[in-house]
């Protein structure tokens, strides 16, 4: 299992690799950048899309008891009154009286400013929701918020989804989408940003069965990360102490990953009880209870929520895949992604740029691209192209050489073993599938 011996790396190395290879760029870089805001480049966009697709597949498409929605970022302002966000979604903010730098009080270790040693003023509660205005008039009535979590759309759509999908409890509603939080101290690359994407699922169940489902979704989430290649010894489940629980939660646990700076949260699995449905019923006047036609009983369902960050997970996949092999000039950097997470699965590389090879290589590329996410690369030497594909974690390279013109066969080179096998083009798709399946099995965490 190659996975077990990965070298790992520092955050700085990943940030520079991410820029050099087109994973992540600073937003608005030509204007000096916007602090803590990032853009995914051509390779990073594929990585993040694969992370989201893997989640959607496991969470929605492969299950009978979860359906997906895609709701708007802007919601009725009363949603945030009922959910408690307007009053409670705050962090304690302190400002240094000397240098005016602001910090989250609960993240500080000492009593004085870590920047200049100055004293702090009185802490105040700072609401993390971004405000904006709807329509041309900037008055209070027009104030709306950029959602700080995707979950509320599942609660306010509970009845619409339940009746149209004809799902019976227990069932879940999942969503992937952008959320916004005006974090006081963003940082650590894409780990904590003010605009980010979440993958959340609200699982509605009968009161009394919620503890069992909480246990189930904690296990499911842990297994999901391992299935797609995160090493088990880099993951832990941390159960929250009672004083850490948010106002809506009866029990919560975080799945944490060992980032280069220490353990950090990837996902929280919470037992949200019937808090949200009851709060929205009370505020909107709409009854959100459920009639269980087998038990002939009406109740307000309890909700268990796995809530994961797409950007944080993509960062963990990137860090976890990093490996260095060999030494000095022979050293190669290789990202040992699970094949479903790797930005590209196959690269097609003609040995030379000559027209005679290019048309055959293009034919091979056209043959493969309906089945795999592929990249075509005919620039620079073949050695450099292999290195480049290793650095973006492409599992397989298919090389078209001058012998191909005679034997209609190509060479498949494996990212992890660097073994090369010659395969007739007519068997290529099947041979790639086999090798990818082997790599899937090898990269379980
Ligand atoms: P933290 O304690 O790190 O601020 P949280 O507990 O407030 O996070 P949740 O509200 O549980 O986060 O959100 C679920 C997931 O959304 C988190 O586990 C994380 O992966 C992601 N997430 C939350 N805030 C951010 C952020 N500012 N930037 C990137 N991802 C985030």
Q: Please indicate the percent range of residues in DSSP E strands (runs of 2 or more).
A: 25-35%
Helical region count?
13
Q: How many beta-strand runs? A: 23
- Structural class, by secondary structure, is alpha+beta
For the record, the count of structural domains works out to 2
Round the mean pLDDT to the nearest integer and report it: 94
Tertiary shape: globular
* Small ligands present: adenosine-5'-triphosphate
- The residue ranges in which pLDDT falls below 50 over 5 or more consecutive positions are none
**Fold-level CATH name of the largest domain:** BirA Bifunctional Protein, domain 2
Percent helix among the residues? 25-40%
Query: What composes the largest sheet?
Result: 7 strands, mixed
CATH architectural designation of the largest domain: 2-Layer Sandwich
Supply the CATH class of the largest domain. Alpha Beta
Q: What is the CATH homologous superfamily assignment of the largest domain? A: Bira Bifunctional Protein, Domain 2
Instruction: From the alpha carbons, calculate the radius of gyration and give it in angstroms.
Output: 25 Å
Query: If strands are numbered along the chain, what order do they take across the biggest sheet?
Result: 3-9-10-16-13-12-11
For the record, give the distance between the C-alpha atoms at the N and C termini, rounded to a whole number.
10 Å
């Amino acid at each position: 299992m190659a996975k077990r011996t990965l070298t790992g790396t520092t955050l700085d190395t990943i940030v520079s690799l991410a820029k050099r290879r087109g994973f992540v760029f600073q937003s608005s870089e030509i204007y000096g950048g916007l602090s803590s805001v990032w853009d995914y480049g051509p390779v990073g966009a594929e990585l993040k899309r694969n992370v989201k697709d893997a989640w959607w597949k496991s969470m929605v498409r492969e299950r009978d008891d979860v359906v997906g929605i895609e709701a708007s970022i802007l919601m009725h302002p009363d949603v945030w009154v009922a959910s408690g966000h307007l009053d409670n979604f705050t962090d304690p903010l302190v400002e240094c009286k000397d240098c005016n730098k602001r910090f989250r009080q609960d993240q500080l270790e000492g009593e004085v400013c870590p920047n200049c040693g100055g004293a702090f003023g009185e802490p105040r509660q700072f609401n993390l929701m971004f405000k904006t205005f709807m329509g041309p008039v900037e008055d209070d009535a027009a104030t709306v918020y950029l959602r700080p979590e995707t979950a509320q759309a599942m609660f306010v759509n509970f009845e619409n989804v339940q009746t149209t999908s004809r799902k019976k409890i227990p069932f879940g509603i999942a969503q992937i989408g952008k959320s916004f939080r005006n974090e006081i101290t963003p940082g650590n690359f894409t780990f904590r940003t003010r605009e980010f994407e979440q993958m959340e699922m609200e699982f509605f169940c009968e009161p009394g069965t919620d503890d069992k489902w909480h246990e189930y979704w904690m296990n499911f989430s842990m297994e999901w990360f391992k299935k797609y290649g995160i090493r088990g010894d880099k993951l832990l489940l941390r159960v929250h102490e009672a004083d850490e629980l948010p106002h809506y939660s009866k029990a919560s646990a975080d799945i944490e990953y060992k980032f280069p700076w220490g353990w950090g949260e990837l996902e929280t699995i919470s037992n949200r009880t019937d808090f949200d449905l009851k709060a929205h019923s009370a505020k909107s006047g709409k009854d959100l209870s459920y009639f269980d036609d087998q038990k002939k009983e009406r109740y307000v369902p309890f909700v268990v929520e796995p809530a994961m960050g797409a950007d944080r997970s993509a960062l963990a996949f990137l860090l976890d895949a990093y490996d260095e092999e060999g030494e000095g000039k022979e050293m190669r950097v290789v990202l040992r992604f699970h094949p479903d997470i790797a930005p590209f699965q196959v690269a097609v590389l003609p040995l030379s740029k000559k027209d005679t090879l290019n048309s055959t290589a293009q034919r091979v590329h056209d043959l493969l691209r309906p089945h795999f996410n592929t990249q075509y690369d005919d620039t620079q030497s073949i050695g450099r192209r292999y290195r480049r594909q290793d650095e973006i974690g492409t599992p397989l390279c298919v090389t078209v050489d001058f012998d191909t013109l005679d034997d209609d066969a190509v060479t498949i080179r494996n990212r992890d073993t660097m073994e090369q096998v010659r395969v007739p083009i007519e068997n290529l798709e099947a041979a790639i599938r086999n090798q990818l399946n082997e790599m899937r099995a090898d990269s379980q965490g």
